[in-house]
Amino acid sequence: DIQMTQSPSSLSASVGDRVTITCRASQSISTYLNWYQQKPGKAPKLLMYAASSLQSGVPSRFSGSGSGTDFTLTITSVQPEDFATYYCQQSYSFPRTFGQGAKLEIK
Amino acid sequence: EVQLVESGGDLVEPGGSLTLSCAGSGFTFSHAYMTWVRQAPGKGLEWVGRIKSKGEGGTTDYGEPVKGRFTISRDDSKNTLYLHMNSLKTEDTAAYYCTWVSRWGRRADYYYYMDVWGKGTTVTVSS
After folding, report:
1. How close does chain B come to A64, measured CA to CA in Å?
2. How far from B60 is each of B21, B50, B54, B76, CA to CA, in Å?
3. Which residues pair with B123 in a beta bridge?
4. Are A97 and A1 in contact (CB under 8 A)?
5. Which residues of A touch B114 (CB under 8 A)?
6. pLDDT, tens digit, 9 for 90 and up, residues B1-52
């Protein structure tokens, strides 16, 4: 199975900060990488697919990059509604696997 | 609007069985790939398994922790996805989400992603 490792596991930021979350795959997955956002008590929501394609309706302050084994999710100016947990997920092979999550908290 | 509504979550004893349902609306259910994802209390997301559309074979894939114990099926006449769970263990305690899988790209090179999620249903395995 492909292992997905996110870093950091938690981070704190102030509104307006630029934030970057990293996701590393245990083997090359090309750009078969998705990002999800989850708020407490809610279902996850798709943010990004194919590493860098923004899902419809997601604000443009979110961006994704990377290929192979290393990927990043960047929020250029964090807004109050962005404080949540973020998960990466590979769609390169089965079983699909998620990173352990990165919790973004208010500083 | 695409909507997924899970049901069937319950308290069940270890070794027991349970079937979850997921009713879909707002999209052509029979054409859809569907997935189950679970989340244990306070933990991260875990992919449970996937079923293709019947038109593309209706085949299934499962995560190792549930292989041989869980079965995903679908009834396209009812726009409903099922997760049949047997030999339940305490570690199966989780919120279970069904998702609609979308894809983008070319036939030989599709990118798959979990586009729409239900609100989830909770399974508790405890004596």
Report:
1. 15
2. 16, 5, 11, 15
3. B94
4. yes
5. 34, 36, 44, 46, 89
6. 999 999 999 999 999 999 999 999 999 999 999 999 999 999 999 999 999 9
